[in-house]
Amino acid sequence: MSDLLTTQDADGRPVRHAFSEAQIAKGLDFVTNRMGIPAFEHRYLMEKAFATGINEAVGTSDFPTLFGALVDRELMANYKAVIPDWRSYVKVGTLPNFNVHEKHKVVGQDDVLPQVAEFGPYLEQPSVTGHYDRQVFKYGRRFGISFESLINDSMGAFADLSQRFLTAALRTESQLAARSFVAATGPSAALFGAPIADVDGQNVTNQGVLPLTIANLQTTLQLMALQTDVNGERIAVRGLHLVVPTSLEFTARQILTSALVQQVDTAGGANAVAPTFVPLPTTNIVPQLGIQLHVNSDLEIIDTSGTGDTTWYVFADPAQGIAAGYDFLRGHEAPEVCMKASDKVSVGGGALDVMSGDFASDEIAYRVRVIGGGWHGDPRYAYAQVAP
């Protein structure tokens, strides 16, 4: 098995380099100095490796390009180890290109069947179709390292480069996914309303103004369960995902984990001059519903309306219905890292190694890229409460 790293030649054409697992392992050990080489000797070997492209400890004559593979390998390892929380309630898919694609919705054929008289004909019911638009875009950043920093700092200047790329990629995907259902003005007007028109032509109410409490969460779940299709049939939506900003995390956890809830009951008979209100502890049934809590810090970043820290959302599981989705470009489901090949040549006409940097400034450049896009779906499978 080998890793492939994409660089570019002087004409901008992609160049693929293959490295064995042994070379990757040796290179990573060498860069991180797992062998415990004295600092001055390790610095000398690093300078030699980047200056000549040859390093016996690594076992390859292409160490500068191998370093790019090490960055890509570390990035991918960390990326796969992190499972973004938003993927639980946002439907993840892929698209084959950058064009606008339609997610079709067929309406009809699923309502109660009519009775057929003896020898009577079976009547046909027409179907209606609608669609939601989906599209992906490119997002990325260029990162340059000076030749002087490389030599003087012995890797310290960019030792955490892969982690920074990973953080940027995860933040980008998270915010793109969040923007499929939230905007600067609050819940996205394309998905939430009181009411909002779905592509099937029916008006759907899925937005309120209730603060987050046990009673209001129960009310919201009941409203979702009462949602109907265009034929008036209930689709029994079950909200399984509670999505809150960081400011509501502790309130949400108390609601979802408390064993008891205090109800107020009236004591005294019909002849009582004034009823007495006493607290009555009862079982909190919310933990029995299996609702998953998701704390999304992007909500307060994107929603700058003034109620971003008090607005909360409930989503049905994407397996039941899709309210929000996020697509990757097919074949590009993970962040991609590449290195710019040097555009220098020696006086004798020979090409220099990739770590020589560009001709104009000696800069060594990397690039990270994410390709994706969020989209909104059926409003029946989500509910937003914009608490004042």
Describe what this molecule looks like in 3D.
The protein is an alpha+beta fold and 388 residues long. The chain contains eight helices and 20 strands. A hairpin with a 2-residue loop joins strand 7 (182-183) and strand 8 (186-187). Helix 3 (63-81) packs across helix 5 (161-178). It is globular and about 95 Å long. The model is unreliable at 1-10 and 53-61 (pLDDT under 50).
Key traits:
globular, 20 strands, 7-stranded mixed sheet, 24% helix, 8 helices, alpha+beta, disordered N terminus, 388 residues, 5-stranded mixed sheet
Q: In brief, what are we looking at here?
A:
By secondary structure, the protein is of the alpha+beta class. Helix content is 24%, strand content 29%. Helix 1 crosses helix 3 (63-81).
